[in-house]
C-alpha cells in the first residue's frame, strides 16, 4: 500500500512539475526567422551550395542545432505563410482568396483563424516583424501584441519595394514610409524586441521575423555588391528543352537562351549586373549576405540578454528558387530546385547540436512542434507531426510523409473545382498547373499534376538529386509508383483536401 501511495505521489509530482513548466516562467521563447525565396544552395551548411558560398552565422546556427536535409515549406509565398499561421495545409484555408490587383488578397478572420492568438491567451506575448502577405488584415491586437509590417496586399503601389523605401504599419496604425535597406530595418526592430524595448519582459515570447530577401529583384545591400563577382556557377543539365520524362507543359516554355558567349541568358528580365545566369546567381547570393549578418545580430542579442538557452530558434524560408534547373527561374514548380527550403532548428540546452535529419519533413510539422515544445494545447486539429523525436535523435524512425501543394489562386472549398487545362495555362499567371507532391523518407518523391492525361513523376532524390530521370516511366518501379500514389491520396484524405475526390485520373 505504501509503495502504491508513493507511486501515486510521484506521478502527481511529475504532473505538477510538468504543469508548472508549461504555465510558469520556464516556457521557452520561439524565434522563427523566415526568409523569402531562399534556396538551400545559398547556405554553406547545405551540400547543394557551391564552395564559394559564405554564410558563417547561419552555418554556426546549424552547428548548434539540427539541420533538415529535405524540408518542404510550401510552393510560394502566400500559401507557405498560411501554413505558418494555421499549422494546416493551405488548401483548407477557408475564405482566403486573391482579390484585385496582385498581390491583393483577403480573408475572413472568423473563418480563418491564426494560432498566435492562442499563444496570447495562454500567457505568451507575440510579435511579427517584416513582410506580410496574407490578406490586408494583419491581425494586430488579435493575433499579435506587437507588429511592424510591410503589408504588401494593402499597399499595391509599394508592393515591389522589397529592399528600399517601404510603407510600414506599426501596431495597426496607418503606414509610414521608412527609408533604408529593409533587411537591416527588420533586424534592428527584431533586436529591440529581443532586448525587451517593445515587449512585456515578464512573459515568454514568440517572434515571427519575416524577411523579404532574397526575393526578386534580388537587391544586395550596397556593402555587398560585387562580393561574388566572377564566381563559377555551372549550367544545369536541362536548362534548355527538350526535357525527357517530363510532362508536356515542361517542354513548352523557354526562360533561358544561349547567349553569344555560351552563357545562358534570361529571356524576360534584366539583372543588376546583367542578364546571364552567372550574373543573376551572383546577385541572388549577394542578397543573402545581409540575411547572414541579420542572423548573427539576432543571435548576439539573445546571448547578450541571457535568452539563448531558453529560446527555440528556427531558420527557414517559404520555399526555394530555381536558377536554370529544368529551365526555370522561379519557385512554384514541384521540383526540389524550385521549392526545397532550408530548415534549421536550434536549442542546444535541450536538443543535440550538429546533427542532420535526412527524412523529408513539411511546414505543418514545424508549427506542430512549437506547440509540443511549449506544452501548449492545440487550438484545433493541425496537419503536422511533432518533430521532437527527430530533434532529440536524428536517426529516429519517421514514417510521416511530407506533402506540398499548388492550387493558385484559390483555397478552401473554392479549390474543390479544379480548373480546366485551358484556364490553368491561359487564364492564370503561370505555366505551372495545379499539383500535389509527396516525399517519403530520405529518398523518393512523387508528383501528380491535376491535368487530365498528364504523366505522373517519381524521383529518387538521393541517386538523382537533379530530378532528371522520371522513374514513373520505368516498369521496374510500378509497385513503388502505386504505393506513392496511394500514400498521396491517403494524406490528402487525412488532411481534408477539398479536391481529393475531383482530381483527374492518372495516365
Amino acid at each position: 500500500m505504501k509503495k502504491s501511495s508513493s507511486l501515486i505521489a510521484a506521478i502527481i509530482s511529475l504532473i505538477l512539475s510538468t504543469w508548472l513548466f508549461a504555465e510558469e516562467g520556464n516556457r521557452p521563447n520561439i524565434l522563427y526567422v523566415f526568409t523569402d525565396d531562399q534556396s538551400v544552395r545559398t547556405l554553406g551548411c547545405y551540400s547543394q551550395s557551391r564552395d564559394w558560398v559564405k554564410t558563417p552565422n547561419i552555418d554556426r546556427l546549424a552547428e548548434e542545432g539540427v539541420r533538415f536535409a529535405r524540408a518542404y515549406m510550401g510552393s510560394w509565398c502566400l500559401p507557405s505563410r498560411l501554413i505558418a499561421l494555421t499549422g494546416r495545409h493551405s488548401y483548407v484555408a477557408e475564405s482566403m482568396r486573391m482579390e484585385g490587383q496582385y498581390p491583393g488578397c483577403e480573408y475572413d478572420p472568423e473563418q480563418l483563424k491564426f494560432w498566435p492568438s492562442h499563444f496570447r491567451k495562454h500567457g505568451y506575448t507575440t510579435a511579427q516583424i517584416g513582410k506580410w502577405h496574407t490578406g490586408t488584415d494583419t491581425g494586430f491586437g488579435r493575433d499579435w501584441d506587437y507588429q511592424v509590417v510591410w503589408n504588401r496586399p494593402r499597399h499595391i503601389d509599394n508592393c515591389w519595394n522589397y529592399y528600399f523605401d517601404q510603407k510600414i504599419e506599426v501596431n495597426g496604425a496607418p503606414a509610414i514610409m521608412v527609408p533604408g535597406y529593409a533587411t537591416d530595418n527588420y533586424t534592428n526592430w527584431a533586436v529591440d524586441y529581443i532586448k525587451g524595448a517593445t515587449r512585456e519582459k515578464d512573459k515568454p515570447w514568440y517572434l515571427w521575423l519575416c524577411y523579404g530577401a532574397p526575393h526578386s529583384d534580388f537587391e544586395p545591400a550596397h556593402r555587398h555588391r560585387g562580393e561574388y563577382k566572377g564566381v563559377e556557377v555551372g549550367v544545369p543539365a536541362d536548362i534548355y528543352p527538350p526535357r525527357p520524362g517530363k510532362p508536356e507543359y515542361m517542354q513548352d516554355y523557354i526562360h533561358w537562351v544561349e547567349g553569344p558567349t555560351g552563357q545562358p541568358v534570361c529571356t524576360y528580365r534584366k539583372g543588376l549586373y546583367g542578364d546571364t545566369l552567372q550574373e543573376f546567381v551572383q546577385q541572388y547570393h549577394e542578397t543573402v549576405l545581409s540575411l547572414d549578418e541579420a542572423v548573427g545580430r539576432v543571435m548576439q542579442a539573445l546571448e547578450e540578454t541571457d535568452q539563448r538557452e531558453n529560446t527555440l530558434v528556427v531558420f527557414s524560408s517559404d520555399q526555394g528558387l530555381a536558377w536554370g534547373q529544368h529551365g526555370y527561374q522561379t519557385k512554384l514548380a514541384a521540383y526540389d530546385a524550385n521549392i526545397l527550403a532550408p530548415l534549421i532548428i536550434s536549442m542546444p540546452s535541450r536538443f543535440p547540436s550538429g546533427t542532420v535529419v535526412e527524412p523529408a519533413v513539411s511546414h505543418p510539422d514545424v508549427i506542430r512542434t512549437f506547440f509540443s515544445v511549449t506544452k501548449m494545447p492545440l487550438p484545433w486539429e493541425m496537419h503536422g507531426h511533432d518533430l521532437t523525436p527527430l530533434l532529440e535523435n536524428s536517426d529516429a524512425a519517421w514514417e510521416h510523409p511530407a506533402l506540398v501543394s499548388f492550387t493558385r489562386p484559390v483555397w478552401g472549398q473554392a479549390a474543390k473545382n479544379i480548373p480546366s487545362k485551358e484556364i490553368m495555362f491561359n487564364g492564370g499567371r503561370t505555366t505551372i498547373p495545379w499539383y500535389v507532391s509527396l516525399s517519403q523518407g530520405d529518398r523518393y518523391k512523387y508528383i501528380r499534376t491535376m491535368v487530365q492525361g498528364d504523366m505522373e513523376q517519381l524521383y529518387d532524390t538521393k541517386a538523382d538529386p537533379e530530378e532528371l530521370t522520371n522513374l514513373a516511366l520505368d516498369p521496374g518501379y510500378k509497385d513503388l509508383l502505386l504505393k506513392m500514389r496511394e500514400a498521396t491520396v491517403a494524406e490528402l484524405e487525412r488532411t481534408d483536401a477539398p479536391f481529393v475526390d475531383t482530381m483527374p485520373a492518372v495516365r
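The domain at 27-402 is CATH 3.40.720.10 (Alkaline Phosphatase, subunit A). The longest helix spans residues 277-304.
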